[in-house]
Amino acid sequence: MDSLFLVLVLLGGIGLGYYFRKFQARKKIGTAESKAERLLEEAKQKQKELVLAAKDHAIKITEEAKKQETEIRQQILRLEQRLEKKETEVDNRRKELENFQRTLEKERENIKVLKEELTANREKQLATLEKIAKLTREEARQVLIEQTEKQVKDELSGLTRKLVLQAHEDAEREARDIIAQAIERVSSEVSTETTTTIVDLPNEEMKGRIIGKEGRNIKAFEQMLGVEVIVDETPDAVVISGFNSVRRYVAKVTLEKLIKDGRIHPAKIEEAYEKAKKEVGQMIKEAGEEAVYELGITTFPLKLVQLIGRLKFRSSYGQNILKHSVEMAKMGTIIAEELGLDAQLVKQGALLHDIGKALDQEMEGTHVALGVQIAKKFNLPEKLVNVIEAHHGDVEYQSVEASVVDAVDNISGSRPGARKDTYEQYVKRLEELEKIANSFEGVEKSYAIQAGREIRVFIGPTKIDDWGAMKLAREIANKIQQELKFPGEIKVQVIREMRVVEYAR
Predict the structure, then answer these.
(1) Model pLDDT, residue 110
(2) 362, 380, 414 — which closes off a domain?
(3) Is residue 15, in this structure, part of any structural domain at all?
(4) Do 345 and 439 share a domain, yes or no?
(5) Angstrom distance (rounded) from CA 386 to CA 388
(6) What digits encode the pLDDT tens for the residues 335-355?
(7) Checking CA distances to 146, which of 63, 165, 191, 488 falls within 20 to 30 Å?
(8) Do 263 and 373 reside in the same domain of the chain?
(9) What is the pLDDT of residue 281?
(10) Residue 369 to residue 389: CA distance in whole angstroms
(11) From the centroid of its chain, how far is CA 198?
(12) Cα distance from N-terminal residue to C-terminal residue, the chain
């Protein structure tokens, strides 16, 4: 009974649940349908609004398009008007050009007619002139050509002479400025070393010690050092004589050491000699190093620097070779920089140009040949070898730098006070200059002036013309270069002057 009741209750509950669920479902369906209807109404409303907005936008676009179309039509209209105006102008210009062309044709015809008339008149005039002058046309042309050639030649001669003189003056002025600047910036004292050296003594008694018993000391000294010691009546002094300047200086140092020590005998002489050789060797090394350091040269080998130092004990015409070479290097560097050349090549070439004189007292050969051998031994560049070889004109220059080194060599040797020159040599050089100038035909007289730096040559104006005067100056200069040796340069000035005097009474 109880089970049946439970079953009935369960069935009843199921039925109630089913109806309740169905009721809930109907309720939700109704709610969804109302919501859908609402959404549909809203969508329709938005559709209407969008359609209205689209219509408004379309109207605006249409209005703007119409406005732009109106503006474009107006622009096209204006362009059409301008084109019409241009076409009218072009037509007018074409008509003007056609009229002008017709006028030119008429003028051309007129010119042709006039030309024919002028030709005919010219022929008549020429025929008349031939009758009057009794010359054919070819003969008259030849006369005119000759007169014109003579006139042009005279004018060309004057112009050429003027240009040549002006070019010489300009070049000389510029060269003087550069050289003067180089000399002003380089100062070097003058050396007056000779082949003898005087050694001061503390007293006359020292002469006897130097000579020694039966001349033993002086003989050992001379034999060991290769010099001659002259002991004469000169008070408190002896003279060391020798051609080799380095050996002579070593002897001087050796003798000074012996005098200071007071003990003079062959063994002591040998000891002092060895010390003096070391000191002089160190002095030579320091002199070479000082020279290359002063010039800023760092590429030379040590042995070559020592050879440069030996030039400190060599002199030429009283001018110290090392100081002369350093002075040349400085002046050459200034000139090379002014001219845009290789300053290093000029500097090195100037310093080494006389390097052969470091060995010419010990080896056979000229200092130029020895210098070339030294340069090749140290594998110096070919251009630098040529600078050394060409600085006395023995070979041709391979570079402009070589000519600069040769020039500064002459400048350094010829500057005032650089070298000693006796009165006899000075007079002889002037006489030789005048003799060379007077040897040419047409020269009336000549004068060497400015210490032999210039020679003025007077010629007969009726014997030599202007062209001949220019040629004569060149020939005299060439002969001076071939026959004379001189430092610097000599100016040859040929003077041709004709003076005509007449009196009016």
Answers:
(1) 86
(2) 414
(3) no
(4) no
(5) 5
(6) 888 888 888 888 888 888 888
(7) 165
(8) yes
(9) 84
(10) 7
(11) 48
(12) 197
**Beta partners for 492?**
455
Q: Which of 414, 435, 462 is the last residue of a domain?
A: 414
Query: Distance between CA atoms of 189 and 166, rounded to whole angstroms?
Result: 36
Please write down the long-range contacts of 376-381, taking CB distance under 8 Å and 24 or more positions apart: 378/300, 378/301, 378/303, 378/304, 380/352, 381/345
pTM, two decimal places = 0.47
Q: Enumerate residue ranges in the chain where pLDDT < 50.
A: 184, 187-193, 416-418, 420-422
How many residues comprise the chain? Answer: 505
Nearest CA to 280 among 225, 342, 326?
225
Contacts 24+ apart (CB under 8 A), 263-266: 264/209, 264/210, 264/212, 264/217, 265/212, 265/216, 265/217, 266/216, 266/217, 266/220
In a domain, 364, yes or no: yes
> Cα angle at 230 between 225 and 235, to 5 degrees?
130
* Torsion angle of the four alpha carbons 128, 129, 130, 135, in this order, in degrees rounded to the nearest 10: 170
Residue 4, both tokens:
């049946």
243 and 329: one domain?
A: yes
Which domain CATH number covers 455? Answer: 3.30.300.20
Q: What is the CATH number of the domain that holds 331?
A: 1.10.3210
Task: Please tell me whether residues 97 and 234 are part of one structural domain.
Answer: no
Cβ neighbours for 437, distance < 8 A, ≥ 6 positions apart: 443, 446, 455, 457, 476, 492
401 alpha-carbon distance from chain centroid: 10
Phi, psi at 238, each rounded to 5°: -125, 160
Bridge partners (DSSP) listed for residue 197: 240
Does residue 34 sit within a domain?
no
Is residue 456 within 8 Å of residue 491, measured between CB atoms? Answer: no
Backbone torsion region of residue 442, taken as left when φ is above 0, otherwise alpha when ψ lies between -120 and 50, otherwise beta: left
Residue 10 falls inside a structural domain: no
* Pair (383, 471) in one structural domain: no
CA distance 391 to 406: 5
309 with 230, same domain?
Answer: yes
pLDDT of residue 142: 74
Contact 386, 364 (CB under 8 A): no
Compute the distance between CA of residue 186 and CA of residue 191 in angstroms, rounded to an integer: 16
Chain centre distance of CA 94: 63
If one counts the domains in the chain, the total is: 3
409 and 435 both lie in a single domain: no
* Range(s) of the domain holding residue 486: 424-496
Let me know whether 129 and 224 are in one domain.
no
d(CA 191, CA 323): 9
